[in-house]
Amino acid sequence: MSHPSRIGRHEHGQNLLVDAGVTAAVADLVAGWRPSPVLELGAGDGALTAALVPLGRPITAVELDPHRVARLRSRFGDAVEVHHGDLLRTDLGRSLDVVSNVPYALTTPLLRRLLAAGRWGHALLLLQWEVARKRAAVGGTTALTARWWPWFAFRLHRRVPAVAFRPVPAVDGGLLEIVRRPRPLVDGPARDYQRMVDAVFTGRGRGAVDVAGRRYGRRVAREWSASSRVGPAALPRDLGADQWADLYDRLRR
Predict the structure, then answer these.
(1) Superfamily name and number for 16-180
(2) What is the dihedral of CA 16, 31, 40, 66, to 10 degrees?
(3) Under 8 Å between Cβ of 139 and 133
(4) Could you state, in order of their start, the residue ranges of all structural domains in the chain?
(5) What angle do CA 29, 138, 100 make, to 5 degrees?
(6) Whole-angstrom Cα distance, residue 93 to residue 76?
(7) Nearest partner of 90 among 77, 67, 106, judged by Cα
(8) Fewer CB in a 10 Å sphere around the end CB: N or C, the chain?
(9) CATH (one of 1.10.8, 1.10.287, 3.40.50, 3.30.70) for 190-252
(10) How many CA atoms does the CB half-sphere of 35 hold within 13 Å?
(11) Could you tell me the CA-to-CA distances from 105 to 9, 42, 102, 140, 191 in Å, in that order?
(12) How buried is residue 32: exposed, middle or buried, by Cβ count under 10 Å (0-12/13-18/19+)?
């Protein structure tokens, strides 16, 4: 009996989803969102598309492979608007929700583009398991998540075994939901807040409070430590969204 390769990927770098239980779980999560048009990035063979169609929402599916585009159009007809295009160049400036089985090689550029775009409300992304955990701050946050926390909430829903994909990748996947906050945790330009996050993550010191004290003054750091309960040993990766927001608010006073 032959076994699928654990390292192969199709020509456009995506491992196609073949597990009906996972596609049903994605559809259930999307069904819980406020009804909006759905944009599927990297539709592949249409496994997720087929699960989303019964929800009755306008669906636009973007796929790079022209052969798959033709098959998607034949399969779904008028039920889905299929576009031949690059998911990294797709217009995200409309009011919609995003679903994607993300090609692993495009994870970081797609996340950065999504988070910088202005109007979508929810995103449900299939990523590598460890990447999904990091984005959801499981076991500690990263600078990328902390930079966008005031505007978005990140939620890890489930682990998706590698055998749910073809070709079978070397690692499991993870289902990450990103929700735009109705009201940001901070006021002011995103770039100012993000410079602060970068400065604390890269600054010298024995912990986040020490780094903040060296950068912004000991008094500010002590007050922040007390109000947000940030201990002297806490590292930037240990901080939560509200703690980052509190530090920024103190710097703006």
Answers:
(1) Vaccinia Virus protein VP39 (3.40.50.150)
(2) 60
(3) yes
(4) 16-180, 190-252
(5) 35
(6) 25
(7) 106
(8) N
(9) 1.10.8
(10) 6
(11) 11, 13, 8, 23, 26
(12) exposed
Distance CA 201, CA 180 (A): 24
| Spatial separation of the C-alpha atoms in residues 85 and 172, rounded to whole Å | 27
SS (H, E, C) the chain: CCCCCCCCCCCCCCCEECCHHHHHHHHHHHHCCCCCCEEEECCCCCHHHHHHHHHCCCEEEEECCHHHHHHHHHHHHHHCEEEECCHHHCCCCCCCEEEEECCHHHHHHHHHHHHHCCCCCEEEEEEEHHHHHHHCCCCCCCHHHHHHCCCEEEEEEEEECHHHEECCCCCCEEEEEEEECCCCCCCCCHHHHHHHHHHHHHCCCCCHHHHHHHHHCHHHHHHHHHHHCCCCCCCHHHCCHHHHHHHHHHHHC
pLDDT at 4 over 80: no
Q: Tens of pLDDT along 184-241?
A: 999 988 999 999 999 999 999 999 999 999 999 999 999 999 999 999 999 999 999 9
**Which structure tokens are listed for 83?**
């576009």
Nearest residue to 133 via CA among 164, 175, 162: 175
CA distance 61 to 48: 10
Pairwise CA distance, residues 187 & 189, whole Å: 7
